[in-house]
Every structure is written in C-alpha cells, then in structure tokens.
Amino acid sequence: EHESDDDSYEVLDLTQYARRHHWWNRVFGRNSGPIVEKYSVATQIVMGGVTGWCAGFLFQKVGKLAATAVGGGFLLLQIASHSGYVQVDWKRVEKDVNKAKKQLKKRANKAAPEINTLIEESTEFIKQNIVVSSGFVGGFLLGLAS
C-alpha cells in the first residue's frame, strides 16, 4: 500500500516549538532585540569575523570559477570562430545586447521601491548590530585575501 501524502511528512507547529524551547524565543522572539544586547563585544566580533571569512572565501572561489568559465567559453568561441567552425553574427549579438539593456532598465525602474526598502532595512540592521557587521566586513575581506 502507498502512504497518503499526509503520512509522508510531519507538520511542525512553531508556536508549540517556541513554548517548549525557551532559547527559540530569546533568539527569534518579538522582543529578541539586536544582537548587541545578547553577547559580549568579543563574541560579536568573532561571530561576525568567522561568518565574514567563510562568505569571503566562498565568494572568492565561486568568483574564480565563474571568471574561468566565462573567459574560457569566450576563448573557445574565438578560437572556433577564427578556425571557421563557428560564424558569429556580431551585429545581431549587438542588437540583442542592446535589447536586453533596455529591458533591464525598464525592470530596474519598476524594482526601485523594493530595492530602496531592502536598502533601508539592511542599513537599520547594520546600525543595530554595528560590531557584528564590522567583524563580518573584516572577515569577508580576509576571506577574499586567503
């Protein structure tokens, strides 16, 4: 017999979970407040630095991989074009790129209010958690350099 869809997963009620686990309310509750109020300055700097270093290190590795893939693909396209295997209609490419630019500008103008809201929320978070944020930036830069 096949199990019904209701039997294949468990529903987790977060309100019940929060009542049973007091740490959940301290971290994610309405009155949780900024991180500044919960941990010492040294702990905040370490937390921000470690997460920043991890993010910077991953960003560096992914960036190198992406740059290698794009550059290698372009190089192969050029070699194939010069060898006569591929013929590229550069005027059509330019036309399509210009069309894509126009579409991106239209979408960017429509998305401006959401972006401004996101920037304001991010700025407020950084202001409330300046120690963690500065530790993150320092760690991120170290991660990029390593």
Summarize the structure.
The chain has 146 residues and is an all-alpha fold. The protein contains 5 helices and no strands. The chain has helices at residues 14-20, 22-28, 41-83, 90-128, 130-145.
Radius of gyration, whole Å: 25 Å
DSSP helix fraction: over 70%
End-to-end C-alpha gap = 55 Å
- Main sheet makeup: none
Mean pLDDT: 80
Q: What does the overall shape look like?
A: elongated
Instruction: Count every beta strand, where a strand is a DSSP E run of 2 or more residues.
Output: 0
Which blocks of ≥5 consecutive residues have pLDDT under 50?
A: none
Which oligomerization state do the chains in this entry correspond to?
single chain
Could you state the order of secondary-structure elements as H and E? Answer: HHHHH
Beta-strand percentage range: under 5%
What structural class is derived from the secondary structure elements? mainly alpha
State the helix count: 5
What are the SSEs and their pairings?
Layout: H1 14-20, H2 22-28, H3 41-83, H4 90-128, H5 130-145
Pfam families: FUN14
Keywords: Autophagy, Membrane, Mitochondrion, Mitochondrion outer membrane, Transmembrane, Transmembrane helix
Main location: mitochondrion
Q: What can you tell me about this protein's structure?
A:
This is FUND1 protein. Keywords: Autophagy, Membrane, Mitochondrion, Mitochondrion outer membrane, Transmembrane, Transmembrane helix. InterPro entries: FUN14 (IPR007014). Its main location: mitochondrion. Belongs to the FUN14 family. Helix 3 packs parallel to helix 5 (130-145). The mean pLDDT is 80. It is built from 5 helices and no strands. The N and C termini lie far apart (55 Å). The longest helix has 43 residues, at 41-83. The protein is mainly alpha-helical and 146 residues long.
